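Long-time lurker. I teach an intro course on protein structure, and each term I like to show students one example going from raw sequence to a predicted 3D structure in token notation. This year I'd like something fresh instead of my usual example. Would anyone be willing to generate the tokens for the chain below so I can use it in lecture? Attribution to the forum is fine with me.
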Amino acid sequence: MATLCFFRFWLGFGIGGDYPLSATIMSEYANKKTRGAFIAAVFAMQGFGIMAGGIVALIVATAFDHKYKVPSYEENAHASLVLPAFDYVWRIILMFGAVPAALTYYWRMKMPETARYTALVAKNAKQAATDMSKVLQVELEVQEVAEDKTPKFGLFTKQFAKRHGMHLLGTTTTWFLLDIAFYSQNLFQKDIFTAIGWIPPAKEMNAIHELYRIARAQTLIAMCSTVPGYWFTVAFIDYMGRFAIQLMGFFFMTVFMFALAIPYDHWTKKENRIGFVVMYSLTFFFANFGPNATTFVVPAEIFPARLRSTCHGISAAAGKAGAIVGAFGFLYAAQSKDPTKTDAGYPTGIGIKNSLIMLGVVNFFGMVFTFLVPEPNGKSLEEMSGENEEDDAEAIEMAGSGTARTVPV
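-- Reply from a regular --
Happy to contribute to a lecture. Here you go:
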């Protein structure tokens, strides 16, 4: 399990495909009393990955700044941008991401399939016991069970829609809405910090100074709000429950977005900038002590073993779709209404103030759709997915038709 947490540390660099695998593996190995904390801890390692990415950018920017002394854009536009060596900066930073990706791939290939999948879906009790023995480092006896030939419902069936359709709608919509707001905030922090004057205008810096200032601001936000938010979820998720934390997170994200947006002109004044940064940081804190963590946890707990990773992957894919909407939508929407202040090549937008209002509305709808998601706190995976009920119902139906079968343990 420590290896899985190591995966998630590096996944902060952006290997989203491992989301359903990491969550499902941890959910199926953890016990019901502390399952939420274990899954949330896997996800929380992303925070350290985010910080690591910022630190790498700071180190590279500092090294290049000491080696190459160049003027600001305002002093000499040509000299501040076109130094050939600067083209290596983004390449070096990006290249660091290949190392954790390779390590993740290597260790993922070494991990066995989960015992629940092997026993319940692959129908190989012996292999499941062997894999569990390796992971838990204990000797387990193999109990042979009769093969269950009863057909199970698939993802695109009426049975799934009846049992879990609303649950899947809840996990996909909340993750989609959360990522619209979350990735908008992450990807365009520099625009917001520049607008309030926390980062100097681009003309007053050269390319390396701009990279350093932005990386420093984003790393500070991660250190002071993002990472603590993740670990607050780890600490409280099995006490408060997933539903309460997600609802609370969306609520406070909505409140702080509106608190920043409505009096936006007030926050742009120099004496109020610190207050803006503090409140902006709190939106990240409650995103992570809230839906950013719980949308990762819940899909790994509420669906049947044979569909658990698939449904988690669908939910995560909906989230990434939201990230695309947020990234490109905010990119255009946040442009100034004044054509003279719009970035070159972009049409006029609705401005940062109205964009923040829109994100507040998105968070509000995230709070509404949270009511579609069940509370799995303190319940076994089989109890949440209804797999035991499914087997019992099928056994009764077959008994009534005069057909006998053995239900596997």
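Some talking points for your students: The CA atoms of residues 61 and 212 lie 6 Å apart. The chain has one domain: 2-111+157-378.
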